[in-house]
Structure formats: structure tokens, C-alpha cells
Amino acid sequence: MRTLSTIMPVAITGVDLIPGLYPEWYAVLQGLSALPLIGVAFITRGSALSAAFPKKN
Questions:
Q1: CB neighbour list of residue 30: distance below 8 Å, 6 or more residues apart
Q2: What is the DSSP string of 27-57?
Q3: 13 closest CA partner among 25, 40, 28, 31
Q4: b/e for 10-46, b at 16 or more Cβ within 10 A?
Q5: Pairwise CA distance, residues 26 & 32, whole Å
Q6: Where are the transmembrane segments (predicted)?
Q7: What is the largest distance, in Å, between two alpha-carbon atoms of the chain?
Q8: What is residue 54's predicted lDDT score, i.e. its pLDDT?
Q9: Which residue has the higher pLDDT, 26 or 52?
Q10: In the prediction, which pLDDT does 48 show?
Q11: pLDDT at 10 > cutoff 90
């Protein structure tokens, strides 16, 4: 979850910036769908979640 929520907004934005690949309205909707993923990335990389699930050595 941590990895995908970090990589997917970058990938979505990169694909949306290719001219002529999608209609503008579709690119805007994809960009809007990336916003919740950015929120998930911040939540999953936060200190509260890291404290709840410590890494085992």
C-alpha cells in the first residue's frame, strides 16, 4: 500500500502529460483520482501507523 500510493500519483500525472493521449476531461478526472492516493501515501508513511506496526528485525 505504501509503495503503490507513492508511485501511482506520479505515474498517473506522467501519463496525463503525454499530449493527445487522452481527452482533457479524462486527464482531469485521472488527476483528481490521484489526490486521494497522495493522502493515503501521507497516512501510511506517518508516525502513528509506524508506531502501531513496528518493523521486526
A1: 12, 15, 16, 22
A2: HHHHHHHHHHHHHHHHHHTSHHHHHHSPPP-
A3: 31
A4: eebeeebeeeeeeeeeebeeeeeebeebeebbeebee
A5: 10
A6: 25-43
A7: 49
A8: 81
A9: 26
A10: 81
A11: yes
Give the separation between CA 20 and CA 18, rounded to whole angstroms: 6
This prediction has a pTM of 0.71
Share of the chain above pLDDT 70, in %: 98
Q: In the numeric block, which cell numbers belong to residue 14?
A: 506522467
Place of cell 508516525: 47
CA distance 57 to 55: 6
